[in-house]
Inverse folding.
């Protein structure tokens, strides 16, 4: 009898529920977008109730589409937009402020203070992260400072903090489970990745009461069961991981040196470094890749804030295209050396620059420049930013020479060929590109006994197409030099 797993994939612009079977095969999906809120320049918020509503509705809809009942599910895995921060009232379950999204830059001043007083060194040593508005503690500090009575209520134990995984779990279990997993905890600036626990020095630095925080479990663990009335049965939640770590897991990058890059709203290149954290001298992040049975696998990560969001901007912001899929044919009609560089620093620059005040720009415009060149430059910006990360990893002594890619953008063959060209590396696209959701399902399946080992999961990965470099090194270097010059001009 076939066993089924549900993955809740709560992303930056939409919520999805997906069902997989016990061979890791996709069965059905339901997806809903929800509004983005931009109260001020550089601020990004979500209404947590929008997130909750879309999650429950997609879970119900996907069961109906698959002609399954909740009792047919062996377990649920949750994967989520990381760092996005929610604080809610323990008694009512209602958030005290909107969710502050990972892209949000309002804590830039606090981060500058942390750097100026020398605290970033301690932060980096304990967490593998940097003092940047990207991470959860800076957002949490803003909420506690700016919502009336929040700090006092937090100290009294009346409030709960969580990233989106934790908030959803709380709601799904009727407030019985206040947990997160080690991957999400490792993105908060409050979690010691070496000791695998909330760190007293960091809690003191950010003035965060520990009673506010969730308990940290393995990525495949017993997180609690759903309230029966939500889906019709008390389905157990057995898996949890931040979206990029879930993609690493879904791509079965279980061996040291394997790397994946996910192209969604942002772009995230993650390389498995095994059981030892590799501290970067190039301002990359050291993070928890996954934790199973108490054993940690670490990863080195480069984070780009704007990837698919740049194409969304070309479509919705300046209306140069009607649909994202139009970009491929436009790029095919455009020479790679068209001379235009679009630097999509809409919410600052991520790795390896970490410049929260940078803003987007287009360089190289001439009278000959048209829609094709600007759209192609938008696609190329994603590849150039990935090259930035590859260069940074090279400085740290590791170089991903083969890359497994996933996310919505990888359906674009032109992008993947240009990516292989500019990286000088093989780019492998799997048959199933929704590997973030698949990773959450795999984690739940391991705990549920649907899958018996990592080796079993490795055997399920299938390549759809490999892209190998066709561009000369001279051309590659010249194009990339133009990108570096554009970024430098942006920061001047």
């Amino acid at each position: 009898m076939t066993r089924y797993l549900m993955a809740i994939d709560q992303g930056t612009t939409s919520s999805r529920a997906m069902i997989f079977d016990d061979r890791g095969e996709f069965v059905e999906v339901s997806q809903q977008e929800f509004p983005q809120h931009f109260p001020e320049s550089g601020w990004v918020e979500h209404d947590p109730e929008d997130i909750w509503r879309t999650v429950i509705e997609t879970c119900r809809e996907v069961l109906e589409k698959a002609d399954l009942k909740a009792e047919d599910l062996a377990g649920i895995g949750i994967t989520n937009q990381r760092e996005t921060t929610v604080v809610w009232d323990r008694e009512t379950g209602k958030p005290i402020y909107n969710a502050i999204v990972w892209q949000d830059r309002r804590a830039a001043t606090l981060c500058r203070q942390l750097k100026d007083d020398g605290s970033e060194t301690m932060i980096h040593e304990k967490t593998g992260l940097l003092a940047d508005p990207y991470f959860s503690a800076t957002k949490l500090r803003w909420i506690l400072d700016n919502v009336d009575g929040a700090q006092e209520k937090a100290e009294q134990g009346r409030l709960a903090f969580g990233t989106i995984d934790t908030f959803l779990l709380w709601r799904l279990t009727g407030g019985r489970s206040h947990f997160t997993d080690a991957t999400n905890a490792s993105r908060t600036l409050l979690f010691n990745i070496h000791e695998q626990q909330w760190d007293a020095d960091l809690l003191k630095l950010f003035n965060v009461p520990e009673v506010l925080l969730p308990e940290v479990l393995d990525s495949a663990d017993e997180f609690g069961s759903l309230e029966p009335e939500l889906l019709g049965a008390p389905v157990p939640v057995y898996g949890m991981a931040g979206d990029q770590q879930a993609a690493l897991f879904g791509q079965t990058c279980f061996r040291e040196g394997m790397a994946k890059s996910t192209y969604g709203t942002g772009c995230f290149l993650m390389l498995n470094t095994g059981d030892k954290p590799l501290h970067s001298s190039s301002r990359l992040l050291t993070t928890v890749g996954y934790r199973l049975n108490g054993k940690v696998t670490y990863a080195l990560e480069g984070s780009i804030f704007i990837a698919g969001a740049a194409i969304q901007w070309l479509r919705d912001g300046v209306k140069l295209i009607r649909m994202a899929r139009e970009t491929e044919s436009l790029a095919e009609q455009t020479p790679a050396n068209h001379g235009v560089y679009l630097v999509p620093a809409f919410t600052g620059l991520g790795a390896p620059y970490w410049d929260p005040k940078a803003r987007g720009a287009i360089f190289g415009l001439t009278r000959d420049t048209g829609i094709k060149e600007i759209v192609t430059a938008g696609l190329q910006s994603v590849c150039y930013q990935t090259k930035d990360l590859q260069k940074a990893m090279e400085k740290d002594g590791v170089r991903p020479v083969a890359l497994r890619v996933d996310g919505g953008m990888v359906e674009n063959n032109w992008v993947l060929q240009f990516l292989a060209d500019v990286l000088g590396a093989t780019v492998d696209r799997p048959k199933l590109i929704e590997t973030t959701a698949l990773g959450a399902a795999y984690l739940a399946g391991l705990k549920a006994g649907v899958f018996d080992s990592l080796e079993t999961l490795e055997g399920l990965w299938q390549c759809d197409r490999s892209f190998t470099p066709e561009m000369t090194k001279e051309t590659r270097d010249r194009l990339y030099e133009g990108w570096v010059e554009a970024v430098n001009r942006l920061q001047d």
